[in-house]
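Late entry, written up from scratch paper. The run itself happened at the end of the previous shift, but nothing got recorded in the book at the time, so transcribing now.
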Amino acid sequence: MNSARQNRWLIDSLLDTDLYKITMLQAFYHAPEFRTVAVEWKFACRNRRGFALSALIPEILRQLEQVCTLHFTEVELDYLATFPFIKPDFIEFLRIFHLDMRFVELQAKGEDIDLRFRGPLIHVTLFEIYALAIISELHTFAHCGGFDLKVARKKLAAKIALLSPREELSGFSFADFGTRRRASKDWQQEVLITLKQQLPETFHGTSSLHFSRLLNLRPIGTMAHEWLQSWQAVTRLADAQKAALEAWVREYRGRLGVALTDCYSMDSFVRDFSDPYFGKLYDGLRHDSGCPLQWGEKALKMYQDLDIDPGSKTLVFSDSLNFPRMIEIYQHFKGRAKISFGIGTNLMNDVGHQPLDIVIKLVAANGRPVAKISDEPGKSMCEDLEYLRYLATVYGIDPETVRTNN
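Output as recorded:
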């Protein structure tokens, strides 16, 4: 294995994160329910195959210490201020914001790592993307010795060729969701420049705020699981999903209206969302686990039952996608709703080696466990099986079908 120590900083801007981290942070900042909430985030690698992640610990810590020296620059804050949904008081909060190593806990667990962020919610939530991007890029260069640009470019060219102008793909569009698992920051930039040049009608943006500003791309993102999970700690458990959906409307007044559906399963989401109030205010839904075709059919039926034209709504697919899978899903739903895709690992880390399947998830808030119950059992993450089963029961899910994935 090559030395893990890098001769450069892997994160040199706090804007090098996903848009939804900023939109959720603003919502948390404004919500009175979260003013004193402390949380715990936990790292997990779902496919560590012979790689000693523990060997990366000194460099992970060194890179995170650098991140904790960063502040949002005036240029970056001016950019965020151009977004109509970002509010002036939040910009002033970001002006003095920085991360703090006091909230980082990292130790070896055999060849694996036990990485956690513990502290006030609004002061630790941004660690997630920076840490994942650092670990992913360290894996590229320390475990894999880097990658061959010729191989990576050939793979990207093959993807682009699949989307060459074809009548059956008219209206197809996708965005980059790959910051957290990129092979490297430089490669992400090259991919985005290439897509902007070669697929101007198909490629419609990136979740990366850094590259959306730098390359004049559309920033993409609304909410993620932490927004829905966190409400388990501040309201009645049975009301957590509805409370999260209502609070998002309170914050954004119909903007950023794509709701994530799989925190408590699609079936429970449909039950909580089946109100014309939500159906009309939200522009669409995002899929992140389970069979995308079954999910999409349930979404279309829900809108029909609400007497809402599904063709007026957007279905965003973002789970473990590759280009042939996106085409398959698009052809299945074309003409029945607006269809869009957010693709991550297969776009930004298909460079000739095995990328890490890594996540950092919220596992506790206010000293209580929190969890998501994915539509795919392997994507659930909770350290308290008893709580996970109770949560399943509350949301009408067979508790015997859920399991922790730590």
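The two ends are 26 Å apart (CA to CA).
(Scratch paper discarded after transcription.)
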